[in-house]
Amino acid sequence: MTDSRTDRIVARFEFVEARLAEGAGDALADLSREYAELRPVVERIRAVERLRADLAAAEALRADPEMRALAEEEVAHLRDALPDAERALTLALLPRDAADDRPAILEIRAGTGGDEAALFAADLFGMYRRFAEAQGWRVEVMDETPTELGGLKELVAAVRGQGAYARLKFESGVHRVQRVPATEAGGRIHTSAATVAVLPEAEEVDVEIRPEDLRIDTMRASGAGGQHVNTTDSAVRLTHLPTGIVVTASEKSQHQNRARALEVLRARLFDRARREADAARAATRKGQVGSGDRSERIRTYNFPQGRVTDHRINLTLYKLDQVMQGALDEIVEALAAADQAARLAEAEA
To answer: What CATH class does 104-282+292-341 carry?
Structure first.
C-alpha cells in the first residue's frame, strides 16, 4: 500500500463526487457505479489517515507532564486500533473480480452413479433455485435433459440478479452425495456425484463470435418421454469450430433457442479466456479458493449423518436438510471469507 496510490484513489473519488454533484449528464450511470465502488475504499483510507494523525498528536502530548498519563493511554489505544484499520484498507485495495456484479450461467451435469447421480443433479438444481429465489434473483432454464425418474442428465440455467456470479462462483467443482438411493431396494448407501460449473454472463463486447466460426444445427428436442416431448425441429445446437465447444437449447421457440445458445456459448468462451489468464498466474494463486478446477471434489453431502462438508475450507455443517432447501448463506460466506484471507495473505507476503 503506497500513499501515492491512495492519493490517486481519493483524488479520483473527489472528482467523481464533484461530477455527480453537477449532474454528470450521459455519464451518470457509469459515474454512479464508480462512486459506489470507490466510496468504501476511500472511507477505509480516511479512517487510517485519521488514526495516524490522532496517534501523532497523542505522541506529541506525552511531552506535556500534565497530559502524559492521558496521552499514554490514548497512544496505547490508537496503536491497537491502527493495524486492524490498515489490514481492512489492504483488503479494500485488493483487485475486485470485474465479473462479480454480473448474472451467472449455472451448469449442472450428472456424474458417476447412473440414475442416482441424475436425481442428485436435480436436487442440486432445486437447492440453487431456492437459494436464488431467497436472494431475489430470477432463474431461467435454458436447456435441460431430464430422465424418466425425474432426474437431470444435464441442465443449463441463467441466474439473473445483481452479484449472482460473486455469490455462486465458488460452487464450481464436483459435488459428491452419500445416501440410500430411492432406486436401491437393499438399503445400501451409495456414493455418486454431479459436476457444477458457474460462469459469469458475458456481453457481446466481451467475446467476438464470428458467423464463419459457427455451425448451427436444428434438431428435434429430446425429453424424458410422454406428452411433453417436443415434436418439432425447434432445438438448436451450436458448434464453435475453433474451440469445439458445443451448446444446445431445446425450448419451444427456435429463434429463442438460438439466442439462448449464443448466450451460453459466449459465457463459456469468456470463462475459458478468464481461466487461461488465471492459469498464467497459477503459481501465485495456489492458496486461493476459486481455483477454477472443475474436476476437484469440493463438497460431500452425507444424508445418513445429515452432514455437508466443504473440503476446501474444512467446513462441516450438520444441517443438510436446510442446505438442500437453499440455506447456503453460511457456506457461501465462509468460502468468500477464505478467498479474501488467501488473497490478503498473498498481498502481504
So the answer is: alpha beta
